[in-house]
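Hey,
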Amino acid sequence: MKRATNSIASPAILVLAIVFLFSLKAIATGNVTYDHRSLSIGGRRQLIISAAIHYPRSVPAMWPSLVQTAKEGGCNAIESYVFWNGHEPSPGKYYFGGRYDIVKFIKTVQQAGMHMILRIGPFVAAEWNFGGVPVWLHYVPGTVFRQDNEPWKHYMESFTTYMVNLLKKEKLFAPQGGPIILSQVENEYGYYERDYGEGGKRYAQWSASMAVSQNIGVPWMMCQQWDAPATVISTCNGFYCDEFTPNTADKPKIWTENWPGWFKTFGGRDPHRPAEDVAYSVARFFQKGGSVHNYYMYHGGTNFGRTSGGPFITTSYDYEAPIDEYGLPRLPKWGHLKNLHKAIMLSENMLIGGEHRNFSLGPSLEADVYTSSSGSCAAFLSNSDDKNDKTAVFQNMTYHLPAWSVSILPDCKNEVFNTAKVTAKSSKVEMLPEDLKSSSGLKWQVFSEKPGIWGEADFVKNELVDHINTTKDTTDYLWYTTSITISANEGFLKKQTLPVLFIESKGHTLHIFINKEYIGTATGNGTHVPFKLKKSVPLKAGENNIDLLSMTVGLSNAGSFYEWVPAGLTSVSIKGLNNGTLNLTHTKWTYKLGVQGEQLGLFKPGNSGAVKWTVTTKPPKKQPLTWYKVIIDPPSGSEPVGLDMISMGKGMAWLNGEEIGRYWPRIARKNAPNDECVKECDYRGKFMPDKCNTGCGEPSQRWYHVPRSWFKSSGNELVIFEEKGGYPTKIKLSRRKVTEV
């Protein structure tokens, strides 16, 4: 028996490699059809390897390089959701500027010679605020989201139709010569359909019918929809989809979301998915007859402004994707997957047109062989044992298969790739700090708000109100304020003991001020949003002001009836008084939406907001509710830029009026005593989000992406709103430097 080589240098393989490279230059358009094997685009069967890049999670200046980096990584399609709440901020008023210029984004994909998969939804989940649905829709009388509900269906169909007509007008669907080859209606509804009863089943069927009636000329998908009607393609989401089978035999096997990493929450740790396991999952999918594969995410990007959902999803949506948040290839993951894609595409014609046979090669070992009528063949050899390397014998040749790996043989002889053998370059990533600087001299403008009501109160009630129903997400902030009178005869005043404040909240976060002094913060987290507070408070004889600043950190983005998930205070009391417990839950509460500087637009360039700013070279530190404004020069070099906020507490940041987003260098904690972070991750075996966590005891997010295109050559206005108190002079701009090793 001969031992197989790992070389790709044989003449037959080199010819196939040239064919692969040539195929990347010419992407077909035309009518899109399908059968059980694959899509057919313009009359030609194709395998699709797609890269998810969400246009509003980056900026237009980044789009060409992101798309090109995906193409260089061996992808031939780009996928994105359509973000309804970004495009229709109020009923019938549409926005397609800046990061939401979806037509420009799709044309960027087209110019790169790539296909486009557009998931119109319009519900998206995606760790995006309110699942991408406009908050105003929740307050249209009688509306229940994602149900056989007339108001919901009216607005959903209206937006879908508007988007389809816009895209048709721009000739962006494949039959028009455009790049869009697939679309999606709804999103992972199969998880929740049962909770909506018969109305859920009717809604799923209506969604498919409504979508198909748009006559876009390309197929519609419904992911994780096990009862998808015959007119749409049921697809799979998950870490592994090799065992997935469409719900009818005439549909191709499509993987809409392969998660190459995972999202992160404020206070959460860093999840990692090894490149070897990602490659294993992809190879297994194509080994088992898959024909359309999409990485969710290939570039995660940034949740700029207040767009993150969750709650508690970080501003970074890096996702440990093959392209990092800053737009740079993540090595070795990007390179390893690039090599995988080359190997798969060498077998494209066999995979979509050859006869498929499966052979057992021993325990946990199998071969899937695709043979053409001319006698050519391609083979995938896999070892699903998650501990032991094995030797397989295939066609009188031996192959070493590491544990949990797949080898690809595009000619049934030469192994050109094994998912566990990483030969791609690695890299060293550094964040190189630079102090804030200005050619005109660094001067800070400072404005501090007073806790509690500013201007006129919005309303008064003898009860605690729901936060979200009050603000309707026009702001993160809602003030709950009241006052109590403490008698000079209270025993705690003489004993020098402090009474205890008890608070219960549905979430998300709360800053507590007693007599205008900040005394602490209480918060939920990404796994348990409600919280309770028990804290000693320094009350005095006479009148005492209690000012509670409640905050949301992104709205819920998924789940049955998720639009009804509450937030805000539900109970307030004080214990340790002469009469025992003072229950304040139903006392007189005065409310104010937002914070003053936000309402005055202090983050807008050149806007003084008619408030008195203090100009200084030594801004105050550890001062809550403070606005800082400073004119800065851009950092040196051309590398991507992150704003280092390790010295600050919690708040919001802007550059030249552009929303950098929420910052909160909250320390990542263990969820349980035995919930350890890892130093090294074993790629072998099934991956789950908590398998390979790092970052225990470190800030969940220290750096905040500031796109280079937002900087001017000089005179850049950086605005910070700090809620708790920090050290503004320690804020830095860091350049992200990647060095191959």
